[in-house]
Write a structure and sequence with these properties.
Pfam families: GFO_IDH_MocA (PF01408), GFO_IDH_MocA_C (PF02894). This is Gfo/Idh/MocA family protein. The chain contains 13 helices and 14 strands. It is α/β, with parallel strands linked by helices and 390 residues long. The protein folds into 2 domains: 159 residues, NAD(P)-binding Rossmann-like Domain (Rossmann fold), CATH 3.40.50; 194 residues, Dihydrodipicolinate Reductase, domain 2 (2-Layer Sandwich), CATH 3.30.360.10. The strands form 2 sheets. A 9-stranded mixed sheet has the order 13-12-11-10-6-9-8-7-14. Helix 5 packs antiparallel against helix 13. The two termini are 39 Å apart. Bound molecules: nicotinamide-adenine-dinucleotide. The site of nicotinamide-adenine-dinucleotide has 24 residues, from strand 1 and helix 7.
């Protein structure tokens, strides 16, 4: 069980670009980063509106002179300080991720960036090279994968408790975009425009969470081929999709199906994952994250609860609340931020041995998400045909 002790040499001086007062995801970053005292928020360019960003930042306790108007000002302002920012989170719309990440790395600052990481695999590979040259970490906030029951599923697969994996069934749907975009706010506007969202809408916005979580649970399975069918039920969103289904063939013969949609009217189920093996299946949903369904063929179905001693050690060591008390998305984000902090700390200390075995969503995870999106788009735009995974 993790009890909030500092697991790194000293707290990291942390900043944010985006995630301001009106931003949807900013609080999740702060609740994840600030939970354990592993990070201290010292600077930010929180908002496109500089005055609102400064007001917001000072309300968070950041010194007014370290609430900057732009990320360029943040880099310049922090560069001359002995106590300058060491790691910055990028919680801005997709089209800005690449340029902001690149500028931060060039300035010698570690980056924690939102998904989908960038628009192309080529951009990801370029940034991976730059980060390696600079000796810096790029973390990616796949926030759900820090949950101890995700670790439990991965451990059960690794320990052979499900048998050979046969079926991967993934769903992340909601109905918030079931209507048209006449009165859409900024967050919907940029998500439905290819110039600001990138080559996908829901596939990148929510599908990348499904894909990364499945990679965490099934690290040894690789996709060989996939078929993606995407559609904009609201025509103004085309060529981007508000609904997609993806069929996947894995290299061990397993079959996968994935459904993402923001037009699943009335649905509040959010995410659901089912991994079916030759002996048993596990199923987890963030709608009831404390419970993991464990269905062994021929036996009564079981519900496993987080924090209970019958779970695998890999799950128990990252549990925070203990059994009987709810463990949710905030705890999951706190783990993700902690694991990224440990990677940054190890990098600073030159501890490459630690980094070899340490698991956290880094640049490779971000790159694989973008690679999956590129394959989905190639399949869908050729008329929903099977394509070899490249
Ligand atoms: P949003 O439109 O709600 O908020 C964006 C914020 O960034 C606003 O505060 C805006 O003022 C600010 N901003 C925009 N450009 C900026 C710039 N150049 N400099 C400084 N600030 C700038 O968007 P959102 O829904 O919070 O999404 C932001 C990112 O987070 C997206 O990449 C999205 O895909 C991702 N996201 C991830 C999760 C997750 O669970 N990991 C959840 C929601 C969103």
């Amino acid at each position: 069980m993790y009890n909030g002790e500092l697991l790194i040499e000293r707290p990291l001086r942390w900043g944010m670009v985006g995630g301001g007062r009106t931003g949807q995801v900013g609080y999740k970053h702060r609740s994840g980063a600030l939970r354990d005292g592993t990070y201290r928020l010292v600077a930010g360019a929180f908002d496109l509106d500089a005055d609102r960003g400064r007001d917001f930042g000072t309300n968070l306790g950041v010194q007014p002179d370290r609430c900057y108007a732009t990320y360029q000002d943040l880099i310049a302002g922090e560069a001359g300080r002995d106590d300058g920012v060491e790691v910055v989170s990028v919680a801005t719309p997709n089209f800005t991720h690449y340029e902001i990440t690149r500028a931060l790395l060039e300035a010698g600052i570690h980056v924690i960036c939102e998904k989908p990481l960038f628009f192309t695999v080529a951009e990801c590979e370029e940034i991976a090279k730059l980060a390696a040259e600079k000796g810096l970490i790029v973390g990616v906030t796949y926030g759900f994968t820090g949950h101890p029951l995700v670790r439990q599923m991965a451990a059960m697969v690794a320990h052979g408790m499900l048998g050979e994996i046969r079926i991967v069934d993934l769903q992340y749907t909601h109905g918030f975009n079931a209507g048209d975009d006449t009165d859409a706010g900024e967050a919907v506007k940029w998500r439905t425009n290819p110039k600001t969202a990138g080559p996908t809408f829901v596939l990148g916005d929510i599908g990348t969470h499904l894909y990364y979580l499945s990679e965490v649970v099934l690290p040894d399975l690789k996709i060989e081929r996939l078929l993606c069918d995407r559609k904009a039920f609201i025509p103004s969103r085309a060529p981007l999709e508000d609904h997609a289904t993806v069929l996947m063939h894995y290299d061990n013969g397993a079959r996968g199906r994935l459904w993402v949609s923001s037009v699943n009217a009335g649905n509040m189920g959010s995410q659901r994952y089912r991994f079916v093996g030759s002996k048993a299946s596990v199923e987890w949903s963030d709608a009831h994250p404390d419970q993991l369904f464990y269905d062994v063929q021929g036996e009564p179905n079981r519900i496993l609860h987080h924090g209970m001693p019958y779970l695998e050690p890999e799950s128990l060591e990252v549990d925070r609340m203990g059994a009987l008390h709810t463990e949710g998305l905030g705890d999951s984000w706190a783990n993700i931020y902690l694991w990224i902090a440990q990677a940054i700390d190890a990098k600073r200390r030159g501890d490459e041995a630690f980094l070899k075995t340490h698991r956290y969503p880094g640049i490779e995870a971000g790159t694989e998400g973008v690679r999956w999106l590129e394959n989905c788009v190639r399949s869908a735009d050729a008329g929903a045909v099977w394509v070899d995974f490249e």
